[in-house]
Amino acid sequence: MKPIRMVDLLGQYHKIKSEIDHAIMDVVEQTAFINGSYVSDFSENLENYLNVKHVIPCANGTDALQIAMMALDLQPDDEVITAPFTFIATAEVISLLKLKPVLVDVDYHTFNINTDLIEKAITNKTKAILPVHLFGQSANMEEIMNISKKYNLYVIEDNCQAIGADFKFSNGKTQKAGTIGHVGCTSFFPSKNLGCFGDGGAIFTNDDQLADKMKMIVNHGMKIRYYHDIIGVNSRLDTIQAAVLNVKLKYLDDYIHSRQNAAAFYNEHLSNHPNIETPHVSEFSTHVYHQYTLKINNADRNELQKYLANNNIPAMIYYPVPLHLQKAFHNSDFTSGMYPVSEKLCEIVLSLPMHTELDEEQLSYICRTILNYAK
Fold first, then answer.
1. Residue 83: which of 331, 274, 313, 322 has the closest Cα?
2. What is the tens place of the pLDDT at every residue in 122-177?
3. How far apart are CA 56 and CA 44, in angstroms?
4. How much is the mean pLDDT over the chain?
5. Could you tell me if 172 and 274 lie in one domain?
6. Cα separation of 273 and 371, whole Å?
7. Which residue among 249, 274, 303 closes a domain?
8. Is 248's pLDDT higher than 80?
């Protein structure tokens, strides 16, 4: 059996090695390392894939969130609603811009922001809602957009973990996650479903004026070189990363299908165990399984993780501490017990290996090992 990795980027690379190597060497030969032709090619191809008017590449997913908020002219002390059970980047960027993160607990089943609680958190200072499409499926964007229209709020989608997922509206229409709100943001960190060979990110929008502004912000506030119309940042996707992504984008749907097949195998073999809850898939979103995350009930999650490690199976805890209990927010208004679902999830979640190269032998071994421990 091949060694089991949490993410097998090497195996994925070997399958498309000739295409990747050719694209990288083409960039080297052109020596157009910044804003080369592959950047615009990738942007156009991703626009077509997502069916969105504008894709603005940038340096990473965190920058994408920051640029989106800058473009929306959010001001210090404006409030942005997001969820506490996620990576810190969402609340981190809100705080960096001197905005106020207002947290709303998540749904126990989907891990995504609980839309039933959002309206209670809205004040006269609220300016935006920032849902995170965690682990690979969309938050309830139909309900979020209804709330945003009712209260005249912006919606910024953190789509760093769910690129390629389809949101299904109640009228039967489908739309790609990340393209429904006013702005969508994604990361191309190597382990993402669409990952490059370093850092990378992008912003999506169907708003022409907003797109023009974000294109200036990512490039020092310039529309014409050396003429700086607004204060911006330096956040560009370099050409080598764009070349890699341009190749991998062709295979994204295949990668999603492979992940869904692996998830189906896990579900079949683990879902009947009384201590294990397999991932819930909502009725309004497909799941692209950036992570395959179990809930371990009435058993020691940490001991299971150690047992798996001793049997050469990596497993990760995403995330061990909710945002409101992080030291970075120690002096804020956040206290223990404020978001009980998020706090509970941090105690019981465990993510299994999930990537495009998992084979049946590996999956069988992982499931068998878990069930042997959990007897």
1. 322
2. 999 999 999 999 999 999 999 999 999 999 999 999 999 999 999 999 999 999 99
3. 10
4. 97
5. no
6. 8
7. 249
8. yes
Residue 374 has pLDDT above 80, yes or no: no
Measured CA to CA, the distance from residue 68 to residue 74 in angstroms comes to 9
Which tops the pLDDT comparison, 25 or 333? 25
Angle between helices 252-270 and 239-249 (to 10 degrees): 60
Q: What is the DSSP letter of 107?
A: P
Q: Which one-letter DSSP state was computed for residue 319?
A: -
Residues 6+ apart with CB under 8 A from 120: none
- For residue 32, what is the domain's CATH number? 3.40.640.10
Task: Tell me: pLDDT of 375 over 90.
Answer: no
User: For residues 358 and 169, what is the distance between their CA atoms, to the nearest angstrom?
Assistant: 32
Q: Which domain holds residue 275?
A: 252-373
Under a CB-based contact definition with an 8 Å cutoff, are residues 37 and 257 in contact? no
Task: Specify whether 174 is located in the same domain as 310.
Answer: no
Tokens of 174: 């489908």
The CA distance from 199 to 205, in Å, is 21
Contact at 8 Å (CB) between 323 and 339?
no
Indicate whether 286 and 160 sit together in one domain.
no
For residue 53, pLDDT over 80 is answered with yes
> pLDDT at residue 76 above 90?
yes
- Count of CB atoms situated within 10 Å of the CB of 253: 12
Q: Is residue 273 one of the residues assigned to a domain?
A: yes
Burial of 206 (0-12, 13-18, 19+ CB in 10 A): middle
| Dihedral-angle region of residue 298 (phi above 0 means left; psi in -120 to 50 means alpha; beta otherwise) | left
Whether 17 is in a domain gets the answer yes
- pLDDT class of 178 with cuts at 50, 70, 90: very high
CATH of residue 300: 3.90.1150.10
Specify whether 124 is located in the same domain as 238.
Answer: yes
pTM above 0.85, yes or no: yes
